[in-house]
Amino acid sequence: MAEAAPDQVYVGAVAAITSFADGISSQGAPIVPPFEECKDAVAVLAEVKGVASNWINDVYPQLLEVPRTIVAQKEAVASGLATLISVAQQLEANPGDAQLGEQFSKAAKELGETVAPRVAEVHQLAAAVAGFAGAVNGGLGEACQRSCAEMGLREAALANQRAQDEAVLQSAREAFCPSESEEEAAEAALRSDGESIGQVTAFIEQMQGDVSLTQGAANGLAYATGKWQTLDAQAQAAIATLEKIQSDPVGSLAVDLAAAQQGWIVFTEGLESIVEQAAAAAI
Question: Which among 266, 223, 219 is positioned nearest to 8, based on CA atoms?
């Protein structure tokens, strides 16, 4: 089977993370048996839900909005870069032309004011994705697994208690002088055992599902984090060029503006692919 194209890998990564967040957020509150292990598991579940909520309410909307915003300004920035290159070429041919120098500085300033907020958004989003990855990889899965193991011990202890209570009931029924009250007490104990075991088992199954969802999110985040770190590096390179131009208009003529233009094209193409894939796959 051929490897998925990079954009498809990104779509799959975001889908896995969103599946985690949606799956966790849609879970109802479990019935919590009165055991310490289960109370501890509730605290773990609350932490997992908090992390999932961060993706749904903060990170994921940014993943959709930031690329769209930048792509919408793609042509304006490209036009600004083309103007800057044209004026730079004229200024190289006429280095003493004050009017061209002023025009060059003005074009660089206007372009920087357009690009800088978008670069800041990309940087913030890259940090948000990395921060979310840190939260998911920072022990959520292990905490869920630990809760499952601890509740599993409680489940085993309850099963053992039920076996003992079954023996008590059997003994009461086989007594030479059966006691109705003893039988009723034993039956009540068995019912309580069964209810507790059912509740603990259901809680364990829910937490095991959370472990699986967390692992899927961690795998997706490895790719998504790298993707946005790359985009952030490209954006930082673009703004660094513009900042150099603004701080040193004359010296910046040596800057390869054509390379900066090509870098912006590569950067925006990466974002365009995200927008297109998001629309196609409804990520």
Answer: 223
